Amino acid sequence: MNNWRVEVDGEGVALVTFDMAGRKVNTLNAEVISEFTSIVERIRSDDAIKGVVIASAKAGSFCAGGDLGDIESFAGPGEPGKEAETLAHDIERMTKDLTLFRGLETSGKPVACAIEGTTLGGGAELAMACHYRVAADNEHVVLGLPEGGLGLLPGGGGTQRLPRLVGIRESLPILLDGATKTAAEALAIGLINEIVPTGQTVDRARAWVLSSPEAVQPWDKPKFQVPGGGPYVQANSEAIAMHTALSRVKFYDNYPAQRHILAALYEGIQVPIDAGLRIEMHEFIKTVRTPQALAMIRTLFLSPREIKSGVNRPAGHPVRTFKKAAVLGAGLMGAGIACVQAKMGIETVLIDRTPEAADRGKAYTAKYLGKQVSRGRMTQEKADVILARILPTTDYADVQGSDIVIEAVFEDRDVKADVTRLAEAQLGEDAIMATNTSTLPITGLATASVRPENFIGLHFFSPVERMDLVEIIRGERTSDAALAAAYDYIAAIRKTPISVKDSRGFYTSRTITRYLDEPCEMLIEGIAPTIIENIGLMTGMPVGPLSLPDAIGLELSYHVAAQTKRDLGDAYQETASDTVLDFLVAKHGRHGRRNGKGFYDYSDDGKVKTLWSGLSELAEPVMTDAFSDDVKTELKKRILYRMTLEAARCMEEGVISDPREADVGAVLGFGFPRWTGGPISLIEQVGVAKFVKECDALADRHGERFRPGQMLRTMAADGRTFY
After folding, report:
1. 523 or 155: which leads in pLDDT
2. What spatial distance separates the first Cα and last Cα of the chain, rounded to whole Å?
3. pLDDT score of 667 more than 90
4. Which long-range contacts (CB under 8 A, 24 or more apart) does 79-83 make?
5. Can you tell me the distance from the alpha carbon of 699 to that of 684, in angstroms, rounded to the nearest whole number?
6. CB atoms near residue 633 (< 10 Å)
């Protein structure tokens, strides 16, 4: 087998070790399930096996859940007129695959699970199918069913075994919200049976198996009662109502999974376990066939995998390695880049104008590593090795020998030109000179370079150590070799790249700008700021449209707009955000959270914020209270479609050419609502023709900014799609 090892000792205890080939963590895919099926058959039929311990060979991880790449293979819509037949076939196939957990727990032999790390999704479902669960006393142990938060439904018995183990009330936040439990929390609610010191879980699980326990799950005993009673017990019915409401508050009904999870739980808990598992499988298939689920699977799992594999990397260029890199500018962004490089084993030179500034940049990494050590995720020795890779300095001579330089200074052309010249004087012929900018055109910045063919844009997102995306911007003279090297560098620091053409705002900055523009239009129309904020959150965006620019800094948006006006001259088109930013920044000195006042007023510690009453000066409020569902839908569309149209325009103009990268970039880069799968997937969900029609209607009511371009019109007429 490629993913499992089975060792039977002299006392008949089979140690089944999960060790997925070529992976750092274990997941459940078709091959893993097929192999485990044969293991379960052996457990049931081999008289020499008296009991079983299931463990993992991966450090800090038991099983991270299902490999969602397998789902797309069967989740597509059936042929017209054959949907029911297709659905029945899929249910039968998936039921056959996943009833192996049922076969394990009804084998008549005691099965214990040794948990030393992360146990999520299908991994948690496998653990619950064991008769006894032993967890290590460390911070790596996290148990949960995150599918609900991903728009999916646990399909391996999670909606049935969890409430039968811990009761309905404890199950609801885990199932609906994806809440996770530490080992101690899991023990307290009955999700695990015992906690032991790290490294002793297998021995303790084996000892339990040898104690000859009754190898029957609680729910298979004749007089089994669900802990805390069924759904009609008052406390449980109240909990279901409360968590349904809380789930709506959190997800705003954007994800269809929650209602299917509730249906599986509510109906399944009232019947025997085998019938409950069949109910769960029906609801699972319904969920995974929704356009939201399919879009999320594609954008959150399949497309990043394809992009990281180098599908868009220029062919014919050898893979570059990066042993040494320099970062110019030790501010928040530069310090974050240095931190990530050092963590990935790259010797890093961190340059700033003063020793104090450079040292502060290195201290950023020290603080980050300190948190990792305190949480048990890293040893102090490893942290010391990583930190030693960063050299804070003011001397550009230290750049010598670098394979790549990342310039991350202030968004000023002259400053960037100066540091580029200083760094390039120390570089070899093949070294890459990269600039981290979110708005300034790369071709213009490359005029300061003596080797513009090696000059490229790398737009990181803050905080760098947490944000997975890097936007690659190719200038007019950037070579294929440099572009390939940029892909190799991003692979070396384990980020996800998207490649865009050089243009003002590139892709992500240009698209997210519309998240400020349309709310500013609403403000000027007299729509109350509270409504605008809540509507933004109801679309599924992680931060409200007035809170986000405050956090980024209003003065930054103001200065970028001012620079754009100077560059474009008469060609510049004023927007509502220009009016609002001028009102806030120039007239009232409100720069955002940084100076305690922007769209919001902030307390001295920044923890309390209230919308600034002065916003009413922009327009007489005309919508301040309750409004109809139709109005709510219209406002949500205005915000979502404004960003989506900008993404489509970027596709039409060739700023970004791959719909996978457009969707991944929007979701990972600035939090475009995950339930959509990204702006391009949103168009596909709505339907290109219907989307064009709805945008035309919005344009008739609110202005030409909603008018779709020719590409979308042609696609609608021809019946074409992006994917």
Report:
1. 523
2. 36
3. yes
4. none
5. 20
6. 12
Pick the residue with more confidence: 92 or 461? 461
Measured CA distances, 502 to 15, 476, 643 (Å): 56, 7, 19
Among the CATH numbers 3.40.640.10, 3.90.226.10, 3.40.50.720, 2.40.10.480, which is that of 4-289? 3.90.226.10
Nearest to 152 by CA among 234, 255, 13: 255
Give the Cβ contact number of residue 717 at 10 Å.
Answer: 11
**E strand or H helix at 201:** helix 201-210
Instruction: For residues 29 and 25, give the distance between their C-alpha atoms in angstroms, rounded to a whole number.
Output: 12
Residue 214 predicted with pLDDT over 80: yes
- Residue ranges per domain, the chain? 4-289, 324-503, 509-654
Cα(335)–Cα(76) distance, integer angstroms:
44
How many whole angstroms separate alpha carbon 220 and alpha carbon 276? 13
Paired residues of 142 in beta bridges: 182
User: Do residues 500 and 473 touch, judged by C-beta distance below 8 A?
Assistant: yes
Tell me which long-range contacts 74-83 makes (C-beta under 8 A, separation of at least 24): 75/288, 75/289, 75/293, 75/294, 75/297, 76/294, 77/289
CA angle 30, 88, 79 (to 5 degrees): 95
**Structure token digits, residue 71:** 């789902």
135-151 mean pLDDT: 90
Of 64-78, 322-336, 574-588, which gets the smallest average pLDDT? 64-78
CB 445 within 8 A of CB 473: no
Read off the tokens for 399.
Answer: 């750049």
User: Which segments of 189-233 are extended strands (E)?
Assistant: 194-196
Q: Could you report the per-residue pLDDT of 301-335, keeping only the tens digit for each?
A: 889 989 999 999 999 999 999 999 999 999 999 99
Q: Would you place residue 76 in the very low, low, confident or very high pLDDT band (cuts 50, 70, 90)?
A: very low
Q: Give the range among 44-58, 93-107, 685-699 with minimum mean pLDDT.
A: 93-107
Fold that domain 509-654 belongs to in CATH = N-(1-d-carboxylethyl)-l-norvaline Dehydrogenase; domain 2 (1.10.1040)
78 against 114, higher pLDDT: 114
Query: Do residues 226 and 168 make contact, with C-beta atoms less than 8 angstroms apart?
Result: yes
> How high is the pLDDT of residue 81?
47
Using pLDDT thresholds of 50, 70 and 90, give the confidence band for residue 74: very low
Q: With 0-12 CB in 10 A as exposed, 13-18 as middle and 19+ as buried, what is 358?
A: buried
User: Taking the model in full, what pTM does it have?
Assistant: 0.88
What span, in angstroms and rounded, lies between the C-alpha atoms of 487 and 404? 12
Q: Find out if CATH 3.40.50.720 is the number for domain 324-503.
A: yes
Tokens of 491: 């692979």
